[in-house]
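Batch manifest, entry 17 of 40.
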Amino acid sequence: MGGSVAEARHAGWLVAPDGTSREDLALFLAGWRRYRAWAVREEPFRYAARLAPLLARLEEHLQVLRRYAALPLDEFLRDDRNAEAAQHRLFLAFVALIDSTKWLAGRARLRGRPRSLAEAFHLLIRAGVLPPEKRRVYLGLARLRNWIAHEAVALPPRKVRALLRFYLPELEAHAALLRRHAGG
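Output type: structure tokens
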């Protein structure tokens, strides 16, 4: 029968002088890969405390946006800085919302790496994290964020005001969703 180390090594079963077999090594590596995949996926979302700064940022932007939305139309249009500031705050609120979707995806333990913001929203909607009836709103928000970010479209002040009044309730609803996830 001869189960000596020399015979086992000759048969190609051992890869280390301590007697570790290839099968043992394969099991270890498979477990390690599973752990690394989990750790990489979970790392950005591991602690619920990471939601607090996202929510605080979104709330700060919403507070300023509410003030701009409450201005009468003629007062809003009187100064171009109002439209520029509102557009900038909308963009920052969208960025905070985007960051929160990453947190929500991690919390829901969703698999897959979306190649675009629209795909991220589709993933969250399919998983039931985001309401499906808001699909068009989230996709429009992703497009608008890209337009503002890349300055592909110069938005006139009236359009900024209309977008502000349209997206503000949606952003507030998203903040409420985040508050529910934060437990408060």
